[in-house]
Amino acid sequence: MSLDFNTLAQQFTEFYYNQFDSDRSQLGNLYRDQSMLTFESSQVQGAKDIVEKLTSLPFQKVQHKITTLDAQPASPNGDVLVLVTGVLLVDEESNPQQYSQVFHLIPEGSSYYVFNDIFRLNYGA
Amino acid sequence: MSLDFNTLAQQFTEFYYNQFDSDRSQLGNLYRDQSMLTFESSQVQGAKDIVEKLTSLPFQKVQHKITTLDAQPASPNGDVLVLVTGVLLVDEESNPQQYSQVFHLIPEGSSYYVFNDIFRLNYGA
Known about the structure:
Domain NTF2 (chains A, B): 8-121
Structural class of chain A: alpha+beta
Strand order of the largest sheet of chain A: 2-1-6-5-4-3
Subcellular location (chains A, B): Cytoplasm; Nucleus
Oligomer: homodimer
Helix content of chain A: 10-25%
Keywords (chains A, B): Cytoplasm, Nucleus, Protein transport, Transport
CATH topology of chain A: Nuclear Transport Factor 2, Chain: A
Function (chains A, B): Has a role in nuclear-cytoplasmic transport of proteins and mRNAs.
Pfam families (chains A, B): NTF2
CATH architecture of chain A: Roll
Strand content of chain A: over 45%
């Protein structure tokens, strides 16, 4: 809990996307039973269902690249709100897709878990 | 407080962008002293400074159009987290710009205020 919220947001997102891109079936310990994920138009709750949703996505390889990363304190208890905009590349495609993702992180002991997670691809204007 | 979080998010964002696009100097009553705004790389706190930041933006006319709107409960107290992706058109420009914006809304009496607000334009991938 000695990290400032900007450093926490950077370290968390780096860890999260590295884990997502190498083996997203192992993301479960970042979520809890009360966690919610909105992925495009699907909404699921709980670590188990969230990991099932993420592993069921129809691609084998994926690479996230952060374009912007902004964080704000989200409660007096140390919660942190993070907005990421970035691009991702799946499988053998050569055209990156833009996305936006928001994380609401809650402190737990010396670490944080993801309470809210909303992901949206951004289609062209 | 009888609204579900999806309806609240829809009604709030409709009101917010209508007010922003017609007269953004009147947005102050949606923020409080503890509210924070990140607008691109600028970070300001408090209703007064937030409205000053918004009114100082270098355009006269602006029109927001929501593409996607997703909401999740953000606390047991009725907080709501909203992710908007959309496009906006400023002044006489004909090319809309994509943006992402997250609002953390907190209930207050029969209404809500904006606790956290993070806005980012999305540049091409």
